[in-house]
Amino acid sequence: MNTSDYTDQVIPVPPGIPKDILSNPKLCRKYGRFVSAYDSETKCGGLYSLDAHQWVISWPISMQEFADRVAKTVAAAGLANKPDKLN
After folding, report:
1. ω before 12 within 30° of 0 (cis)?
2. DSSP assignment of 10-58, as one string?
3. pLDDT tens-digit profile of 34-86?
4. What is the pLDDT of residue 23?
5. Which residues contact 69 (CB under 8 A, 6 or more apart)?
6. Which of 13, 24, 27, 79 sits in a 20 to 30 Å window from 39, CA-based?
7. Over the Cα atoms of the chain, what is R_g?
8. How confident is the model at residue 3 (pLDDT cuts 50, 70, 90)?
9. CB burial class (10 A; 0-12, 13-18, 19+) of residue 33?
10. Closest CA to 37 of 8, 7, 69
11. Sign of the CA dihedral running 73, 82, 64, 50
12. Distance (Å, whole) CA 85 – CA 45
């Protein structure tokens, strides 16, 4: 994934989430130092920490359940629950 929209880091493609999901702004979003990605076909969601350089994968999980987990993580990190602008 070319992550120039997110950071100067290269984010590895996570297991269970196809590479093309990472370039879809509706399914892959940045929240502060986290990047979230969700694939509805595999019901797989991932949250990548730009600081730890690590994916946390949830599977199987519905989009709503994953969105709730991301919201809780973002809130716990003290971040606004709105995605950062990608460009």
Report:
1. no
2. PPPPPTTS-GGGGG-TTTEEEETTEEEEEETTTTEEEEEETTTTEEEEE
3. 999 999 999 999 999 999 999 999 999 999 999 999 999 888 888 766 666 54
4. 86
5. 45, 47, 58, 61
6. 79
7. 12
8. very low
9. middle
10. 69
11. negative
12. 20
> What is the Cα–Cα distance from 21 to 5, expressed in whole angstroms?
14
pLDDT of residue 82: 62
Instruction: Give 52's Cβ-side CA count (13 Å radius).
Output: 8
As beta bridge partners, residue 29 has 36
As a whole number of angstroms, the distance between CA 84 and CA 62 comes to 23
Pull the structure tokens for residue 63.
């989009």
- Cβ atoms of residues 18 and 39 within 8 Å: yes
Dist CA 11 CA 50 (whole Å): 8
- Tokens in use for 56? 């946390």
pLDDT at 7 over 80: no
